[in-house]
From TrEMBL, chains A, B:
<dbReference type="InterPro" id="IPR036237">
    <property type="entry name" value="Xyl_isomerase-like_sf"/>
</dbReference>
<dbReference type="InterPro" id="IPR004360">
    <property type="entry name" value="Glyas_Fos-R_dOase_dom"/>
</dbReference>
<comment type="pathway">
    <text>Aromatic compound metabolism; 3,4-dihydroxybenzoate biosynthesis.</text>
</comment>
<dbReference type="Pfam" id="PF01261">
    <property type="entry name" value="AP_endonuc_2"/>
</dbReference>
<dbReference type="InterPro" id="IPR043700">
    <property type="entry name" value="DSD"/>
</dbReference>
<feature type="binding site">
    <location>
        <position position="165"/>
    </location>
    <ligand>
        <name>a divalent metal cation</name>
    </ligand>
</feature>
<keyword id="KW-0456">Lyase</keyword>
<dbReference type="InterPro" id="IPR013022">
    <property type="entry name" value="Xyl_isomerase-like_TIM-brl"/>
</dbReference>
<comment type="function">
    <text>Catalyzes the conversion of 3-dehydroshikimate to protocatechuate (3,4-dihydroxybenzoate), a common intermediate of quinate and shikimate degradation pathways.</text>
</comment>
<keyword id="KW-0479">Metal-binding</keyword>
<feature type="binding site">
    <location>
        <position position="191"/>
    </location>
    <ligand>
        <name>a divalent metal cation</name>
    </ligand>
</feature>
<feature type="binding site">
    <location>
        <position position="134"/>
    </location>
    <ligand>
        <name>a divalent metal cation</name>
    </ligand>
</feature>
<dbReference type="Pfam" id="PF00903">
    <property type="entry name" value="Glyoxalase"/>
</dbReference>
<dbReference type="InterPro" id="IPR029068">
    <property type="entry name" value="Glyas_Bleomycin-R_OHBP_Dase"/>
</dbReference>
<dbReference type="InterPro" id="IPR037523">
    <property type="entry name" value="VOC_core"/>
</dbReference>
<dbReference type="Pfam" id="PF14696">
    <property type="entry name" value="Glyoxalase_5"/>
</dbReference>
<feature type="region of interest" description="Disordered">
    <location>
        <begin position="601"/>
        <end position="624"/>
    </location>
</feature>
Amino acid sequence: MLTSIATVSISGALTEKLHACAAAGFDGVEIFEPDVIASDHSPEEIRALAQRLGLSLDLYQPLRDIEGVDEQTFAENLRRAEATFRTASRLGIGTILVCSNVATATVDSDEVSADQLRRLGDLAATYDIRVAFEALAWGRFIDDYRRSWTIVERANHPKVGLCLDSFHVLSRGHDPAAIRDIPGDKIFYLQLADAPALTMDVLSWSRHHRLFPGEGSFDLAGFVDHVLATGFDGPLSLEVFNDTFRQTDPDRTAVHALRSLVWLQDKVAALQPELARGRLHAVAEAKPPNGFDFVELKAEDTSDIEILLEQLGFTPSGRHRTKPVTLWVAGDARVVLNEQQARDLRPHVSAIGFSVPDAAATSHRAADLMAPIAYRRTYADEQELSGVVAPDGTEMYWVTATGGQPPGWIAEFHNGMPAAASPVRGIDHVNLLQPWQTADEAVLFLTSVFGLSADAPAEVPGPTGLVRSQVMRTADGSIRLPLNVAPHVLDGSSVPQHIAFACRDVVALARAARARGLDFLPVPDNYYDYVAGRFGVDADTVAELREFNLLYDRSPEGEFVHFYTRTVGSVFFEFVERRGHYDGYGTDNAPIRLAAQRQRQTERVRSRVAGPSRRVPSGANLEP
Amino acid sequence: MLTSIATVSISGALTEKLHACAAAGFDGVEIFEPDVIASDHSPEEIRALAQRLGLSLDLYQPLRDIEGVDEQTFAENLRRAEATFRTASRLGIGTILVCSNVATATVDSDEVSADQLRRLGDLAATYDIRVAFEALAWGRFIDDYRRSWTIVERANHPKVGLCLDSFHVLSRGHDPAAIRDIPGDKIFYLQLADAPALTMDVLSWSRHHRLFPGEGSFDLAGFVDHVLATGFDGPLSLEVFNDTFRQTDPDRTAVHALRSLVWLQDKVAALQPELARGRLHAVAEAKPPNGFDFVELKAEDTSDIEILLEQLGFTPSGRHRTKPVTLWVAGDARVVLNEQQARDLRPHVSAIGFSVPDAAATSHRAADLMAPIAYRRTYADEQELSGVVAPDGTEMYWVTATGGQPPGWIAEFHNGMPAAASPVRGIDHVNLLQPWQTADEAVLFLTSVFGLSADAPAEVPGPTGLVRSQVMRTADGSIRLPLNVAPHVLDGSSVPQHIAFACRDVVALARAARARGLDFLPVPDNYYDYVAGRFGVDADTVAELREFNLLYDRSPEGEFVHFYTRTVGSVFFEFVERRGHYDGYGTDNAPIRLAAQRQRQTERVRSRVAGPSRRVPSGANLEP
């Protein structure tokens, strides 16, 4: 189906928006009137630009507070409407959105509203313009699409039809099934928006918190299914008011928006396979990943990370034959260290590798969803890795998993030590810090490209603000990616990323690591009094937890014992032992960690300020 | 009365919080349990630190999900409570907050809850601790202070009393008058928080959007009045969960918080003058300002501003005899230009002068409210200006207005030209850009120190995000300070400050300014089509508006015609003509202005990138 987007959904001047939508691949746009008023381009210039860019101008919007008024007000409203029709004509737009009256309605009557819409339709007809009437969720009298349809039906005018907006229907909890009874040719326009489940006044919810399909909690596939059942064949158009997207780069948001429509069509196609064939853009199928293949850390100097890994029982398993890359292994956990000649590049998570059932299928799916391709130099006899760049900049690669076999790329590493037995099972989760601008985009990206699903979001109070955490995962937990959005940082501290390794016996692992000199993140004594009090853990166990700076959590499903290392660059490691069917992340312990990390950072700044200036030998066991 | 604050209200580690609260002048604090758990100081160390700082530890909080449960759960809850009592004892805290059960309550019975609280009281008594029971607004069964009081009365235990929190009472719309019937000695603790009028689920409202008294919409003076009528003589304590204060500097937030309690006591004192004498801290009275005395702009080089002012008909009225400062006058508008030898200091609003009825009274009031003093070098025979530094860093001065006479400090300026007749009346408003961190603080600061009041906030959609605008003003409009919070800036553009001058005939002023070469902010043609359509303005008037880049607004009270200059540094000027009783700011036109300003900025960046490198002579009519 054709795709469209309201210009209010993205940032910038109107001409920038048109360029962004065309570049992303939209077929058309709906023009938000304030964008025209503020533009230094005439309506004729805007029309010509859209034509050159190959964009249809599908809708001009909105015309507000028209019907349900006394005759004197209506005369004034018709005069006002005519000015809008004139502008729409100059733009070459054939359909205008008329919202149900919010501010000036005084007459609560289907008959009066229908009559006034009919007369508006007569005026519109002289400009060959259609009027699409929409029930706003907060309309004064008309706030339900079923009533707006009754009125349009009663107006019975060829130029008067309906505009349906998923937000206005689903936010009110109205059953969308009655859409099926509306003739498709009377649905003049269809606007789509998702939204998170929030309990707040519907106007603020709508104006600030709409999301692109796939990022919220609405059943948009079901909604569109109802609309398509009517025979509707107009474009699927996005109208998303969102404080964040108003601030992000329009080119980027436009691609993100179109991805949401591709994903949505695929979902609808799954509901209506026979419909899909002709009209819906289906996406190549690919099963979600079934495990982590590797994590890559990049830095100018990775020696501090190597020290940590060695202390944690990882084995150096070879150097890549053509690249400045080393491989470290413990159990099924593979960590790739990539030394870059980039000055002051501090250690950070640069790439994640997934095991997938069919790499070619995942590649097709990623391409269909316009995921930006990650580039990796590959020589003739090396394994080709396909990958994409996630919204936060992390590269994500995939290889086909071959049951129990190590991946082929390992053969490219030479001179490694044979891997020792290890209590480490593999990578449990990778926690990625997200810029606030791309956090919603990341949810849709990981949902659509890799088939991950979003757990309920959590908030963690840190010493300098709330950290918002959103876990993306596979149902079986083989992939877990907590995405964190950190507060604005005022005191120079920051929230690092981390890699968590699952292990069999975390106490034994911690003991061995301490014997090798590991620098644990220190846990305050008060925490252990709290654990004893909260969970009734016995004194011996508490003493053991305290000895190794271990943290503890319990749920009805099981127990969770874990510890953290110091931070190197922007990364630290966590080791976790899941007992029973514990399925969480010790979220209640995260504030303890954030406080301890900030404490260390503050001490470091103090010792830097107070201490004598001295050169630290490269590779020394000191935090950078 | 004694003052206290919950440690959850401010940022940082627990010890930083204690230092901040003591430095601000609080008498005590209530300790939030998670702050202790995450602290690397033992309870005994925390107790000793508080003692040294002169802070009483008034409350330990919260103990959750205790009552309304089956006997087996209650036994486990008592064990958990005892651990908390032990920690409180080590801290030397005598009162513990117990919230009504949210998560685990299964028994909806006053009798069961009262019995369980009584047994909790018995246990607490062995630690000489009091239990303050609080009805949370989202309690499972107990969500109303009247019910929590019934239960406490029924528990009838000397160690079991009530905790009242203004948020939990007022957010639910419960009438606080019944507080008067509770014996004061059974109110064990009083927590105060304000909040904005929001329609959303009460838990999110409480956890993220609480404000300090005077910043929201609750009648806190009335609430405290009810509590004091009971004979309650504990501290007034603040418990404010707020996403912003969690991120701001704790020292700053603590002063801000204490100011809110000083202001609140003054409000309560006005309700209860007889009570005020002994117990309430009253603030020196001072009438609000009745006009702008001057605005000062500071820069390394003010010549671009001088060019603008000259084009706008201002008269250079002299150079200060001891400072690098010049005075420019038009009507009653006085602009002071202050040239600083600070490299790259671009023009910005550095100070505002107010006319006040009694400068000494305002000085006393500012001191009582702990407003930071602004320093200005003053020589022997110069007029002393008292002033404070507002939260955004703008200095605010005041002098006593002497009806119709120019202020005394003008005599310090020499060699000026005699002021010409001018259509300018005076300064209409000064629009100050606020950092998001201090926007709420600014509302309380201007309310309490200068007696301004807050209009309903507005949101202006700009091309790169929403600008939030909050007008602070006197009732008569003689002082108007729109405070703007700009979106996060991603593309290098920024929202400047501006000074608006009121004038008699804005068209004539614009005509004269254009003749002198003024560079207007250009308004797009489409805007004038919109004005004609929206307001039905006649063609001649529209042509005149268009000719001079004038903007237009109309309300039921009157009309508003205005124009903007180009931006110099971080400042531009606006000239406004208010016709009839128009009382607004042309907010609907602000998006046009924001778009035009961004357009100019983008062009400037482009011409800088594309154009030949050349030196611009200082003072040339080009934007920096």
